[in-house]
Amino acid sequence: MTRDERLQDLIRLLRDRKLTVSFAESCTGGALSSFLTEQPGVSDIFLGSVVSYSNEAKMDLLGVRRDTLMQEGAVSESVARQMAHGVRRQLKTEWSVAITGIAGPSGGTATKPVGTVCIAITGPSFEDSRKELFSGNRKDIQMASVDYAVQWLCEVLDKK
To answer: pTM for the full model?
Structure first.
């Protein structure tokens, strides 16, 4: 399936079920939101996003807990889940997706190398997160994160 076909699939799934979605993005810097808004007229399904690059923005705008950030780091499944819950609560959507990671070229560690990305999805009676390792340059990692999130959300919505 091409990127455009995946995007059309996501839009169809949300519209057919009359669902709304919001995004909380860190390492992708709004790329997921940009990808969805490439299609005109999606305001019926996409209510908005929060690009929270700093820890302070994650806490202030999305309600991520300071102790989680200190204990597990900004790139963790726990933070991704809190980001997803926060944006869903703020924008009052049925579904949300959060992405936090290390797109590089610097910032990686032995335990969290460049390309480590945590993605979370929340929805009615649904919450899950995954930790993935993508490769390539910064743009490759950002686009791989966007593609993964769209594909995963389509899979989740298909099962609902």
So the answer is: 0.97
